[in-house]
Amino acid sequence: MSSINNVYDVAARSMSSQMTRLNTIASNIANAGSVSTTKEGAFRAIRPVFEIDYASDARESGLSTTSVSDIVSLDREPAKVFRPDHPLADGDGFVYEAAVNVDEEMVEMTEASRQYQNTLEVVSTLRT
User: Does residue 93 carry a pLDDT above 60?
Assistant: First the structure.
């Protein structure tokens, strides 16, 4: 893990974390309509887990930022849907739809992109 020396390091890590968040959201949206034969095989939404990183001289500099420590699946049950005509239907005619709420993902995407843009604006202001 690289050291945190200045506000540019803080911004770079923050923006990288938000990009990871945006990538997980894109993955969730891309898999929103997927189905599986089993409940265990159904896609579940994923989220990054953030952690705080402090500069080695945080008491003097006050610098800290965030990074992604893990990406986890949300504990949501996939929807069991009766679709006997689907090729992945089980013996009883059911498929399991991905446990993804597209509306929630859109809100997450808006928030992540705004946080990314805010950090970019801070860097732009500092450079001028």
Answer: yes
